[in-house]
Each structure stands twice: as structure tokens, then as C-alpha cells.
Amino acid sequence: MAADPRFHADAESCPVCGSPNLQEIRCKVICLNCRTILQSGADLDGGALQG
Ligand SMILES: [Zn+2]
Description:
Helices cover 0% and strands 22% of the residues. The chain is an all-beta fold. It has a domain at 9-41. Strands 1-2-3 form a three-stranded antiparallel beta sheet, with no helix packed on it. Strand 1 (22-25) and strand 2 (28-31) form a beta hairpin. It starts with 21 loop residues before the first strand and ends in a 12-residue tail after the last strand. Bound molecules: zinc ion. Zinc ion binds at residues 14, 16-17, 19, 31, 33-34, 36. Zinc ion binds next to loops.
């Protein structure tokens, strides 16, 4: 009944605010509650930012 210790990138709820409202955008998982990026794809690493 305790919280599962298996906390990986594929979290079902936001580890920051605990909200289950997660939105998967492209290769990222963003919390719709606190707007925190929980998971970022490798595509964002060293990528050029374009407006
Ligand atoms: Zn959150």
C-alpha cells in the first residue's frame, strides 16, 4: 500500500506536484499543472533553437 519505489522516466504522475495531468508532446512529457518538463528527448540535447 506504500508508494511504488519504481520511479522511472515513465512516471504516471508528476513527481513535483503529484498531478496526474501529464501531457506528452513530441519526445517530452510536460506536467499541465506546474508546467514542469519531466522527460526530455535526446533531440533537445544540443539542438538549435529556432523561433
Ligand atoms: Zn507537476
